[in-house]
Amino acid sequence: MSELPARWTPATVYPDMWADPDDDPRNKNGDSPEGERATLHDVLTDHRLTVRMKCEGLDAEQLARRSVPPSTMSLLGLVRHLAEVERDWRNWITDGDPLPKLYGEKDADFHGAVADPAVVEAAFADLEREQAATDAALAAYADLGERVGEDGFAIRELLVHRIDEYARHCGHADLLRECVDGRVGQ
Questions:
Q1: Beta carbons within 8 Å of 8's beta carbon, 6+ residues apart
Q2: 183 by DSSP, 3-state: which?
Q3: Can you say whether the dihedral through the CA atoms of 118, 123, 126, 132 is positive or negative?
Q4: Rounded distance, CA 169 to CA 161, Å?
Q5: Which parts of the chain are beta strand (E)?
Q6: How does pLDDT run across 53-77, given as a tens digit for each residue?
Q7: Looking at the domain assignment, is residue 132 inside a domain?
Q8: For the segment 33-44, what is each residue's pLDDT rounded down to a tens digit?
Q9: I want to staple 33 with a disulfide (CB 3.0 to 4.6 A). Which of 15, 42, 63, 66 is the partner?
Q10: Is residue 94 part of a domain?
Q11: Per the structure, how many domains does the chain have?
Q12: What residue numbers bound the domain in which 152 lies?
């Protein structure tokens, strides 16, 4: 008997999918956003939903379970990392003092991802709060080509970079979830 979980999915219409199309919150029934900013935000929202979906139904131990030694990566670590990254994006658009790290030293987002329900609850609250704050900060700029911060990044570039960050970590989340309970990505 293998200790590895069997591959499975709850989808019934398309068994190789994470969720049935009618149940997938990322399915917009063909509705397409208008304009560049709305399109970028729509893609970002779908990636954010994907990360949350990969964490659904797991307890604190499962969320904190690390993939393979010596990696410190876990689903909970990813959630904490994304909260930290969202906060850091705001440092890119300001000339002022940077916001302090949420979790302390480098890699504390992953090292502190422990199997404690309070840590899980705090991580998701941190992520939601930091996403909203970064969304609001970037929404203040009407021109996506406007250059901000010490390095003169265009707002458009920051929006695309956020999408890239989430997309990369959605791939990690697929593999991490499969290691936990065999549920496969879509």
A1: 181, 182, 183, 184
A2: strand
A3: negative
A4: 12
A5: 147-148, 153-154
A6: 999 999 999 999 998 778 899 999 9
A7: yes
A8: 789 999 999 999
A9: 42
A10: yes
A11: 1
A12: 36-181
